Amino acid sequence: MTELLDGLLQASVWLALAALVVAAARPVLLRLGGAALAYRSWWVLPLMLVVPYLPLPRLPITEIEPVMVMASALRAPAVPSDASQWPLLLLAVWLLGAVAMAGLSWRAQRRFEHALGELQLRGDGSWQASGDPGLPALVGLWKPRIVVGPDFEQRFSPAEQDLILRHEHSHRRHGDPWANAALAALRCVFWFHPLLPWVARRFLRDQELACDARTVDPHPALRRLYANALLKAQLVHPVAPMACHWRSQPMLKERIAMLKEHKRNALPWMAGQVLVVGLCVGLGTVAWASQGSAAAAVSGMGQVDMPADRGATARMMPPPSYPKIAFEQSIVGKVVLQVNVDADGKATSVRVLEATPAGIFDAASVAAAEQWTFEPAIKNGKAVASALKIPVTFAMDDDEPAR
């Protein structure tokens, strides 16, 4: 339970860092490669959420003497009696928020699809709706359909209709409905994140700008016609979370301003591609190595499996507090921890390998182990990272009264 909360917190930090980096790099990317390149830079976000959980190189594990925690040696528990309920309470709040956000998104999507009314297939492969909750749009996830309003022919000229349909076809070819679905899932999981509303708005704007560029750049002479089509369609409508809307009134000025720019030449565009790849690789490497300094501290190439000159040893290992609920019910047990120790002798990460009974002594053991310090392992004359397997036994001693 605490591992899930810790994972959410760490992922939130990486999400914030990725969003700030994308925001800082966006002006450069726009100059180098235009809107399409800026939109592609958003790949950094899912990468930063996945990479930190990829496995690190295995460290040699050394087992040291077990830690014994005797209930008779206790004073008052160091943790308040209701402290163990906080992780459960926080998890419940997060889950309620995620379910609520998912419900709101599903309701908005269903309301939009219901307002379309009856759909009729057109000769150009698109569908014409009897209602207009915000059309034209690309609707659907598994088999997305281009849906236009009942007055599509009356409102737009044939040339404008062709541009609009090209725009929506471009959304479908590049998988933008799936990107919007991933964004909706992200908003459900990280509903509490203060930067996520900005991320969502900026991502959707860059998506539309990129689609505009893909549609118009091959035909520069049609820019004015494309801008006229945008102006005709700007009405206020509710939007669906997973639909690609042609109308986007809040960003109308930005879209028209982008149309005035000339297409980038090949060399800066290529430089922009290299910059995006560099952003992804650089930030991904930092996030991967941040799981602990173990990846950086594993000694030289080809030497991982060689025995250490000296394994890590305990320096200060104050025992965990005996959980009050276990003390009151005379529960005994054992927790086996894996503690990763860096070259400075600090515990960089703690993981529960075994716990009997499960969930009773885990939190107390991990909290104590995170404060332990060690003499680092020595290999080839240098301090290196290592991993320790430490059993922690919780026992009752009836011979001496608890204090």
UniProtKB/TrEMBL annotation:
Compartmental location: Cell inner membrane; Membrane
Pfam families on file: Peptidase_M56, TonB_C
Family: Belongs to the TonB family.
GO cellular component, one term: outer membrane-bounded periplasmic space
Topological type in the membrane: Single-pass membrane protein
Biological processes per GO annotation: protein transport; siderophore transport; transmembrane transport
MF terms in GO: energy transducer activity
Name by which UniProt lists this protein: Protein TonB
Native species: Stenotrophomonas rhizophila
InterPro entries the UniProt entry points to: Beta-lactam_resp_regulator, Peptidase_M56, TonB, TonB/TolA_C, TonB_C
